[in-house]
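Run log, item B.
One chain of 361 residues. Sequence copied directly from the ordering sheet:
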Amino acid sequence: MKKENILNTIINEDCIDAMNQMEENSVDLIFADPPYNLQLGNHLTRPDNSSVAGVDEEWDTFSSMEAYDDFTNKWLTAARRILKEDGGMWVIGSYHNIFRVGYILQNLGFWVLNDVVWNKTNPMPNFKGTRFTNAHETMIWCSKSQNSKYTFNYEAMKSLNEGTQMRSDWHLPLCTGKERLKGEDGKKVHPTQKPESLLYRVILSSTNIGDTVLDPFSGTGTTAAVAKKLGRNYIGIERDQDYIAAATQRLAEITDVFDESLLKTPSKKKQPRIPFGTVLEKGMLSIGEKLYDAKGKLTAEIKADGSLKSKKGDGSIHQVGAMLQDAPSCNGWTYWHYKDKKKKLVCIDELRKEARAEIYG
């Protein structure tokens, strides 16, 4: 199957068969929510004897652990073939299956980058009181190989988290309320529909605008829906016609974001380099002017060549910042501050942004 013929569609086929027909090295990211092989066995009830809607679908039933491992090996092998060399993959699971999946994907050559824990803020209780409440699921984020130049939008994740580094424990609710797709009978269309908030972080963190995201277990199209909202292309694979019908309707109701600038999350590493000397040359700061740490206690003076003079020695804004802190390294742009006309401390990184805008637009 040529990529252009299946782009932004949901294929009604077995995922292994479909992926084996796709072009090699053709997708940027794979998000996989495979069967968990829950092995629930008994019918679940609440203390009042009312039934709990669990997962008893045929697609989550396997005859043995060996059968599940064989299935996992086949779909991961097919996924690896179509993933680009610098592509990434996320696989989600529970304690029933995630350790087996992780073992197999490592054996196939995938390189694990993180395991991210989705802590459910509204988990289903353990009605029998025989175990801890199962309140989380685990996602394995991996690249195709150890040498892959995978995408990670660090700045976007930090911004999403109000300026603090995004951690590997994500506190998000289950899919409920209006987001949960229901049929005409009022029942859930899919028993394990994932919340869009989860996929939002996955896709925003590890893809760029225009990338292609594949979901081999598409279900009701959560991955496709979020990809479309974020300006990414999607390919879904799903066997169940009812799930596809629900996903198709869901996708039709999503309006594209026409202003692409709203979707861009540029990395600071990819922005044009601005030496500190440029700020001096442009007259934004002066020779002999003092720079301060964020508390205004440690100082250094600006020299004519753009280096700094301090009580511990001379060097670049980064070297002197490290010296004064007795640290192995320092980002001088975020460490040093100058005093504006109102004697307020302002980070010199603001001057770098201004200089970059003037030079590069």
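Observations after the first pass:
- Residues 65-82 form the longest helix (18 residues).
- Residues 42 and 56 are 10 Å apart (CA to CA).
Flagged for discussion on Thursday.
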